[in-house]
Write a structure and sequence with these properties.
With 222 residues, this protein is an alpha/beta fold. Helix content is 27%, strand content 32%.
């Protein structure tokens, strides 16, 4: 069996440390005993971008992505967007971007150097609260979904107040897309209560249609 090798670790503001491992050509980002990300499982993160842009029907959109992760959502978005699009990536942990440009550069490619991309080292919740009618879509792959693991501060994104802020940050007809490792009926109802038109989609973790089922909620601003 190929051993798992620790490459690096980093602190998370208000949370437990994250560790980057490599096993052969695969990389894993781990919180305590929980594997948050794996370079072999990209399907649902790619679907987060692809299904959002299919619903928007625009190639010149301005997207806010929080956070970067392993870049699957960002790369999928860039592949579908036109040259006049903009993608703002909010990443709270600078080391994640260092890993993307360092140990995982073969996976990253040139997506972080794309002229359409602007990386901001900030809490995506704060960026959402500061925006008014700014984004065509907000794509959240933060923590593990509404039942987060990484840091307690992420819970505010999924609260009534957080959803109201996201709605205010969207342009008319804009979409809030939220990735989750598991279903959450209470969160789905909170999205509806926040006056979003909600569509819940189950997607497989792997791009080949296999692996665990994850959930994406698409909330369109009325």
């Amino acid at each position: 069996m190929i051993p798992r090798i620790l490459i690096d670790e980093t602190e998370v503001p208000g949370g437990e440390p994250l560790r980057l491992f490599r096993r052969g050509d695969d990389h894993m980002i781990v919180l305590e005993r929980n594997e948050l990300m794996n370079s072999r499982m990209s399907g649902s993160e790619e679907a987060l971008a692809e299904m959002t842009l299919e619903r928007l029907g625009r190639r010149d959109a301005h997207l806010l992505i929080g956070g970067y992760g392993m870049g699957f959502t960002l790369r999928a978005a860039l592949a579908m967007l036109g040259k006049n699009a903009r993608v703002t990536v909010s990443e709270l942990v600078p080391k994640i971007i260092e890993w993307a440009r360092g140990p995982m550069v073969a996976l990253t490619g040139d997506c972080l150097d794309d002229k359409r991309v602007h990386v901001v080292f900030d809490d995506v919740g704060a960026m959402i609260r500061d925006a008014r009618g700014t984004y065509d879509a907000i794509l959240l792959d933060v923590d593990n979904g509404p039942e987060g693991l990484t840091r307690r501060g992420n819970d505010g994104l999924y609260s009534d107040r957080g959803l109201a802020a996201a709605r205010a940050a969207l342009k008319p007809g804009g979409i809030l897309a939220v990735w989750s490792a598991a279903p959450d009926a209470k969160f789905k109802q909170r999205m509806r209560d926040a006056d979003f038109l909600v569509d819940e989609v189950a997607v497989r973790a792997r791009s080949n249609g296999k692996g665990p089922r994850h959930v994406i909620w698409f909330g369109q601003k009325r």
